[in-house]
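Technical note accompanying the year-one report. For the benefit of new consortium partners, we illustrate the data format agreed upon in the data management plan: each record pairs a sequence with a structure-token string. No post-processing was applied to the example shown here.
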Amino acid sequence: MHDVNVLDFMPIEAGAFYVMDRGYLDFTRLYAMHRACGLFVTRAKVNMSARRIYSKRTDRTTGVICDQTVLLKGFYASQHYPENLRRIRFKDPDTGKTLIFLTNNFVLPPLTIAALYKNRWQVEWFFKWIKQHLRIKKFLGNSENAVKTQIWCAVSTYVLIAIVKKELQIDASLYTLLQILSVSVFEKTELLSAFQGSEIKTNNLDLANQLNLFGN
């Protein structure tokens, strides 16, 4: 399953599910996914106009109100996506909200389609975690390899800081440690001094034996 944001730099993968909120609803993009054999799940907008072709029987006790095959009616929408879509109306038992899903998958049970959309939040939370903890505000490259390299470098840094925190028995959170290191990355400061805000004696540290970056 992919979050829609990655579509800006990744080709459509046949058989993969692309899950997005209705704010990203673009029938031209959806049809491009469909023609590339990609599968999508999204939410319909309130003003979407569609003609019902067929309705399946549903068990409303599960929250599935209807499971329909529809065809878009709007002038531009019908041109941008000229084939049938599956429309599922679902009442979330946890929130009580009624959601309308659109998908080009006509095989999976409607509850599975609803679960796929719900799991989209796992992707959202992952990217939020990346921004907050790995300090990745934006990707430096657009290729798949560039994105993976940047994430792996950030994860490696995060793990190293976690090791330092455990070895030095520092009470501060990893987020705090990352903030401290980000502002003192080019300062010649002992780790404990940076984290504790006080100088520590270094009787056993032979500074004369340290390598000089510029050879002076």
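Partners are asked to follow this layout when depositing records. Confidence is low (pLDDT under 50) at residues 183-187, 198-205.
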